[in-house]
Design brief:
297 residues; alpha/beta; Rossmann fold; 8-stranded mixed β-sheet; 12 helices
């Protein structure tokens, strides 16, 4: 695993530049900055409708120092497939083609094009930065919003669990990885690996949102760390059908080593309406997810 000292030595210039209009403490900005440090400037990015479309800034002061294409909500996977085909037709083999989409544009509106790209084996990297709601349009629930979380469309708390899209994508037989902005070396290594592999790759990043999750902007990394240490978000990669725990999740397979989920819930205003029963439902869901992980190992 790449260490912090090695990261400092390896990483070059910023490719997602300062002056963008992300909110203070934005998990998306951390995710895309470090993803691009791993991928390098020979990268073309497709961004379906999301916060990313509006935080890149206005020309001539745009934040991306690489080719960046705004795209319709449902078309991320299809657009990236077309761009890859165009590069291949021109004999350009050293360009990474990446989709960087939110959870709404991935788990909901974009899943058809994503699944198609995975089934075809399109040589792209599809990234979901997951802030667990439609944050750009005012904090509506998505299928990635967790049980109990309040949004403008679930004012008393969502009654369904979060969709497990990484395992859905793993069923396509492709390389799948999860990541968190609280574990940058782990995130960096997974992007490096994805860029070296053929075919379609899927990376799902937990990227907390201070205004949407209702916590102080200074606590983004702390919140992202709690979601991992409670086992609510599991860091792993799946390659050739085998799952391997990574980063801070490597030592959490035993339930006794995981923090209770209540430690994570109480740090965010979006869970201020959960009952004791709701907390137990969420804890049971976390424990079931770990049992499912064991079957993939």
């Amino acid at each position: 695993m790449t260490g912090i000292k090695q990261l400092r030595e390896e990483c070059g210039d910023e490719l997602f530049c300062a002056g963008n209009s992300t909110c203070a403490g934005c998990g998306l900005e951390l995710a895309i900055r470090w993803a691009m440090k791993a991928l390098g400037p020979r990268t073309a990015m497709v961004a379906p409708a999301s916060c990313l479309n509006v935080v890149v800034g206005l020309w001539p002061k745009t934040a991306p120092a690489f080719p960046f294409i705004n795209m319709a909500f449902a078309a991320g996977g299809a657009a990236a497939t077309g761009i890859r085909a165009a590069y291949d037709a021109k004999g350009i083999k050293d360009m990474n083609v990446v989709v960087f989409a939110g959870d709404g544009g991935t788990t909901d509106i974009g899943i058809q094009a994503l699944s198609g790209a995975a089934e075809r084996g399109s040589n792209i990297i599809y990234v979901c930065y997951d802030n667990e709601a439609y944050m750009n349009t005012g904090r509506q629930r998505s299928s990635s919003t967790p049980y109990g979380a309040t949004t403008t469309t679930t004012p008393t708390g969502k009654r369904q669990h979060k969709k497990n899209l990484p395992l859905i994508m793993a069923s396509h037989g492709i390389y799948v990885a999860t990541a968190s902005v609280s574990d940058i070396p782990d995130l960096y290594d997974k992007f490096k690996k994805a860029a070296s592999l053929p075919g379609c790759k899927y990376i799902h990043i937990m990227a907390p949102c201070p205004p949407g999750w209702r916590y102080d902007a200074s606590k983004t990394v702390e919140i992202a760390d709690l979601i991992v240490r409670t086992g609510t978000w599991i860091l792993y990669e799946i390659e050739n059908g085998k799952l391997r725990l990574t980063g801070k999740s490597r030592n959490l397979l035993e339930k006794a080593k995981r923090m209770p989920i209540v430690n994570y819930l109480t740090e965010q205003g979006r869970f201020n309406q959960v009952s004791e029963e709701d907390i137990q439902i969420l804890q049971d869901w976390v424990d079931r997810n770990w049992e499912e992980v064991k079957h993939w190992m």
